């Protein structure tokens, strides 16, 4: 039972790390898309700066 408990603990940790990395990658992609859209929107108005 002890080995099974350790196996379940390791698998749960791996799944948690995978979900954490996936959420982080999605947030970075959304941030880059937001910054990219802001830059392209500002490039249309050259008189702003």
Describe the structure.
This protein has 49 residues and is mainly alpha-helical. The protein has one domain. 86% of the residues lie in helices and 0% in strands. It is built from 1 helix and no strands. The termini are far apart. 0% of the residues are buried. The model has no long low-confidence stretch (mean pLDDT 87). Keywords: Membrane, Transmembrane, Transmembrane helix.
What structural class results from the helix and strand content? mainly alpha
Uncertain stretches of 5 or more adjacent residues: none
> What string gives the helices and strands in order?
H
How many H/I helices? Answer: 1
Radius of gyration: 21 Å
Overall 3D form: rod-shaped
Number of domains: 1
Helix content: over 70%
Number of strands: 0
Strand content: under 5%
What gap, in angstroms, lies between the N and C termini?
A: 68 Å
What is the residue-mean pLDDT, rounded to a whole number? 87
Instruction: Report the biggest beta sheet as strand number plus sense, adding barrel if it closes.
Output: none
What's this, in brief?
With 49 residues, the chain is mainly alpha-helical. The protein has one domain.
């Amino acid at each position: 039972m002890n080995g099974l408990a350790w196996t379940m603990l390791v698998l749960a940790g791996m799944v948690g790390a995978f979900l954490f990395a996936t959420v982080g990658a999605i947030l970075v992609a959304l941030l880059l898309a937001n910054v990219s859209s802001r830059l392209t929107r500002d490039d249309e108005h050259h008189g702003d700066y």
